[in-house]
Amino acid sequence: MPPVPPQKELPNYVDSIWCAYSVSVLAAWNSEFVTYPLDLVKTRLQIQGEIANKKDAKLVKAPHRGMFRTTLGIIREEGVPKLWQGVSAALFRHMIYSGTRIVSYITFKERVFKKSKKDVFPIWQSAICGVSAGAFAQFIASPTDLLKVQLQMEGKRRLMGLPPRVTGLYDAFNKIVKTSGYRGLWKGSIPNVQRAALVNLGDLTTYDTAKRFILRNTSLEDNHFCHLLASACAGLVAATLGTPADVVKTRVMNQPLDENGR
């Protein structure tokens, strides 16, 4: 029987911070582009029923729709490409948020806390790391969320006969800064940070816990299917925890800004 060749060691850069940052951003870009139509529909659903300006009676008369009717309405009334309206702001957001979130989480786990003697990371420490990493990353990336929400609502405003507020990412940035200064870019940042903290509490913490539970209590090995199951559990918990704050964040960010950035 021929001898088994020795396995090659992975290069040092695989475990580096910049590699983790880059891979996180690329993975987030891929998932964001695929799921962005759902994000757009979610934003439209969250705005339904809100009276952003009491003088605009058309906003009050806007029909309420569910998820599927909203999706079909966007396709029929605005066109299929409009399902990706504002995706540039979403991709720009992940350049800041996703990389910072993962790198911060790894840094907190490795430098702030230490594993127990059983080589297990306690759930309460994982929760603290997840909340801290998510809140920190989201505060930095909050302006990109504001730009994204503003762009996502433009198609609906035009169908209602309202004048467009912005024409693109750069135009939205300039108008916000011109109206309320750079402070206005962080409008809605408080519920946004709260949402991110809750999402990461459910996401990062649940993923580690679910993966460990699956490996201990089933015959599955540490493979892609195991990661898929753990990710599904993490996504469900994260969405459940973060949705209330997400609705508040979206409604605040969709409101007009004043000269004080409010």
Structural class: mainly alpha
Report the principal-axis shape: globular
Uncertain ranges: 51-60
State the separation between the terminal residues, measured CA to CA.
74 Å
**Rg computed from alpha carbons, rounded to a whole number of angstroms:** 21 Å
Number of helices: 9
N-to-C order of helices and strands: HHHHHHHHH
Report the helical percentage. Answer: 55-70%
Mean pLDDT metric = 82
Query: How much strand?
Result: under 5%
Main sheet properties: none
Number of strands: 0
Considering the chains and any ligands shown, give keywords for the structure.
single chain; 262 residues; mainly alpha; 9 helices; 69% helix; globular
Q: Would you mind describing this structure in some detail?
A:
The relative contact order is 0.11. About 4% of the residues have low confidence. It is built from 9 helices and no strands. The chain is mainly α. 69% of the residues lie in helices and 0% in strands. It is globular. One of its GO terms (cellular component) is mitochondrial inner membrane.
